[in-house]
Amino acid sequence: MKQHKTVRDVMHAHAVCIDGLTTVEEAIRIAREQEVKAIIVNKRDEHDEFGIVLMNDIAKKVLAKNRAPSRVNVYEIMTKPALSVSPDMNVKYCARLFERFGISRAPVIENGQVLGMVSYNLIVIYGMLAEEVESQHRKD
C-alpha cells in the first residue's frame, strides 16, 4: 500500500509569529535572526484571522515604493487572511492549492494553533523525493 506524504511530514516546525503593530524594520530583523522567509501575523482576538508577510511583500510594498521600514507597520502590508493548510493534507493537494492561489508558502494550522510553515521547496525536497526513494526501496 502506497503511503502518501502529508504536510506534517514535510513542514518546517518553526514558525515566527508577530503582532501586526510591529514595524517592518523590526520584522526584517526578526526574519534575519530566525532565518525565515515569511512571518505570521497573530490574530487580534478569537474572531480574527492570521495574516502573513513575505519578504517579497516588503520588497514590493516598502522598498520599491521608497517607504521607511521604521514607519510602516506589518499590518499595512500583510496578506490577510493567510491561506493556511491542515497538517494532515496530502502534499500533492497542498501543491495544487499553492498553484491555484499563486502562493509559494503557507502556515500550517491545526485547532487554531500555528504548527509551522510549508513551502513548495519543502514539498519537493521532502515530499516528492522521499516517495521516490521509498518506492525504489520497495522495488529492490
Automatic annotation (TrEMBL):
<feature type="domain" description="CBS">
    <location>
        <begin position="78"/>
        <end position="135"/>
    </location>
</feature>
<dbReference type="InterPro" id="IPR046342">
    <property type="entry name" value="CBS_dom_sf"/>
</dbReference>
<dbReference type="Pfam" id="PF00571">
    <property type="entry name" value="CBS"/>
</dbReference>
<keyword id="KW-0129">CBS domain</keyword>
<dbReference type="InterPro" id="IPR000644">
    <property type="entry name" value="CBS_dom"/>
</dbReference>
<dbReference type="InterPro" id="IPR051257">
    <property type="entry name" value="Diverse_CBS-Domain"/>
</dbReference>
<protein>
    <submittedName>
        <fullName>CBS domain-containing protein</fullName>
    </submittedName>
</protein>
